[in-house]
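Progress narrative, Year 2. Work on DinB family protein from Pinibacter aurantiacus advanced from sequence curation to structure prediction during this period.
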Amino acid sequence: MKLYPALISRLENQHEAIASIIASADEARLKKEIRPGKWSIHENIVHLVKYQPVFIDRLHIILTHPEPIFEAYVADNDPEFEEWKKWDNERLMNALQKDRQAILHLVTTLPEEKLARIGIHKKYGRLSIVQWTEFFLLHEAHHMFTIFQLANTIIN
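Result:
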């Protein structure tokens, strides 16, 4: 199992688009619940930042345990999520960058046999570390699209 160039490139750079997407949004817009009952821009960003250490932990578990099983991560069930929602945008972006560098280093320095190790997701089944990384990036891209939509929705 090998990492492919598009995966590495997205892992290096995808998250950096968040700052550009929200550049014109003021603090009120970041915190506004634009879709009733759904997360704000800020809460989506907190979720992405908070999930990175969870992902790092999962990778370490996959590397040290035979085929561990993981439930879907639900931020609203994470007791730290509420605390992280108090963080300002600068702190969030710094944490996002720091943890992304850790993920990038971890994944890109693994030998092929380690990249093939399996972790089982309750919904998606047996995934290699390469597939977990793809899943991580697609999940992030989904939230980034949501952030884009929220940042650009016309509010009447």
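Helices lie at 5-13, 17-21, 27-31, 41-64, 79-84, 89-108, 112-115, 129-152. The first strand starts at residue 69 and ends at 70.
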